[in-house]
Inverse folding.
């Protein structure tokens, strides 16, 4: 159907969302009333301090789950608390697990991103896609390119519009498919990203509340997340073709804006032959790096292995962030040199510095998170609540799968208001991880549950910054596009993805398939 034909069938007054729109308006107002996450963690620290004082005064304590004796709640409103927490404030921030790992990974990613490698790969992945497979192609790109972080939206949403426009479909629908693929499947990715490193670091610190020696690795969900990525991409494509296309006639761009968009050509700034040659060299470099790592892992006494030649508990997997950073630096440098965007090795540190500037807001948030977690851990509230919660659930006799379902629902609802995955994980992990460990559930399994609940509702929450970004992109083609426009198209996809992902997890759990290398699901 041509653009002209679509304009003819567009209703004069697009249908409104009715009660759904009113609910979304309420959620938007409630979310906007929340303070910035930085201040939210300080406010919660104050709440924890008051609660710890009350619980300590009431003599709250439990049997130590790891050894003989008891653990009592300690009041944060005391001289001991002030001395310990103030003296340890700097160490709490500097030694905060996610801080170092995220910094290291982003130093490498910044080189590849600013060299133009990610943009070139995304553009090549979407080229020459037939009309029949354009939806699946865009969905796969969205799911697989989440490792670009927020830059994935900036690159892929416009490219999704281009791909759909090229086959005579609504470019606005292409934007929506790209957005929901990146956003709702954000934690399903076959690659180890900075988010994986962050989640694993926070989970490790949370697990230490029960077992001081337990380590959660960034690879602990890789089998499950890799499988999920492709299944969710197919889900996006299926729902789009079976449900969203029935309303595609409503996504008609304004004529003048569409004409302007057609005249805009996205260019990489280099000729096609040079870019293709650069990508080939980059592919060879990536292959060479992989071969070197494999060769280095072959000897049983390799320093990249663990004690006794272990591969699961190895230097490679336990310090994967270092190897990921080196990988991105290598391929970014090779691509940049081949295209002329990197003139010499002197440019690399400058690109790294730009990457650090981009994640400065995250580092500021870490300051508040690290102090909150230190306070929370010092009070012993998490341990007491975990033991009490585990005892309560055990006495209820709730089946494990029912417990999982309740956790998924609760986190999904919270995620509508606190859309930062790292912030929400930092908030719930201490109590959630420790409680589930005491019930016999591995932190890797709890982390997989959180990934599902944290992802799918992102695309229907107006509180998210990327949601606002997507609305802004839609408005470049249709001035009256708004929250209701986006939600009415993302809601069916997001709910379908949530159902499919939960069913996949339950099947995975019942079959007992490992979630990652050495990470048993139960």
């Amino acid at each position: 159907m041509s653009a002209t034909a679509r304009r003819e069938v567009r209703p004069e007054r697009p249908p409104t969302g009715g009660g759904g729109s009113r609910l979304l308006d309420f959620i938007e107002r409630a979310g906007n009333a929340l303070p910035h996450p930085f201040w939210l963690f300080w406010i919660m620290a104050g709440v924890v301090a008051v609660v710890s004082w009350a619980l300590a005064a009431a003599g709250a304590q439990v049997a130590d789950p790891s050894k003989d004796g008891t653990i009592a709640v300690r009041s944060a409103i005391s001289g001991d608390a002030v001395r310990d927490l103030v003296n340890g404030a700097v160490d709490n921030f500097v030694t905060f697990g996610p801080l170092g790992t995220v910094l290291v990974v982003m130093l490498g990613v910044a080189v590849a991103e600013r060299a133009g490698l990610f943009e070139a790969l995304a553009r090549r992945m979407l080229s020459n896609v037939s009309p029949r497979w354009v939806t699946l192609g865009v969905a796969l790109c969205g799911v697989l390119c989440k490792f670009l972080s927020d830059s994935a939206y900036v690159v892929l949403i416009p490219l999704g519009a281009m791909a759909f426009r090229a086959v005579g479909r609504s470019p606005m629908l292409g934007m929506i498919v790209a957005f929901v693929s990146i956003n709702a499947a954000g934690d399903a990715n076959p690659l180890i990203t900075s988010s994986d490193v962050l989640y694993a670091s926070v989970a490790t610190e949370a697990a230490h509340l029960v077992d001081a020696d337990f380590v959660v690795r960034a690879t602990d969900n890789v089998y499950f997340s890799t499988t999920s990525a492709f299944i969710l991409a197919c889900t996006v494509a299926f729902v789009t073709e079976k449900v969203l296309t029935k309303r595609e006639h409503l996504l008609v761009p304004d004529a003048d804006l569409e004409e302007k968009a057609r005249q805009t050509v996205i260019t990489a700034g280099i000729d096609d032959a040079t870019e293709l040659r650069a990508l080939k060299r980059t592919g060879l470099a990536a292959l060479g790096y992989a071969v070197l790592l494999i060769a280095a892992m072959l000897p049983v006494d390799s320093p990249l292995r663990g004690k006794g030649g272990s591969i699961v508990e190895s230097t490679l997997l336990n310090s994967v962030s270092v190897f990921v950073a080196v990988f991105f630096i290598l391929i970014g440098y090779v691509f940049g040199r081949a295209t002329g965007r990197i003139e010499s090795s002197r440019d690399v540190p400058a690109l790294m510095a730009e990457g650090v500037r981009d994640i400065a807001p995250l580092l500021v948030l870490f300051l508040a998170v690290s102090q909150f977690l230190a306070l929370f851990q010092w009070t012993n509230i998490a341990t007491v609540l975990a033991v009490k919660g585990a005892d309560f659930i055990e006495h209820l006799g709730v089946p494990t799968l029912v417990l999982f379902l309740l956790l998924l629902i609760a986190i999904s609802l919270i995620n509508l208001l606190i859309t930062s995955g790292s912030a929400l994980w930092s908030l719930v992990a201490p109590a959630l991880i420790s409680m589930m460990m005491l019930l016999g559930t591995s932190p890797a399994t709890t982390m997989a549950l959180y990934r599902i609940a944290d992802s799918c509702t992102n695309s229907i929450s107006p509180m998210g910054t990327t949601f606002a970004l997507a609305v802004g992109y839609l408005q470049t083609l249709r001035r009256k596009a708004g929250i209701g426009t986006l939600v009415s198209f993302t809601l069916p996809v997001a709910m379908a993805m949530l159902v499919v992902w939960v069913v996949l997890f339950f099947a995975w759990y019942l079959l007992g398939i490992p979630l990652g290398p050495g990470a048993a699901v139960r």
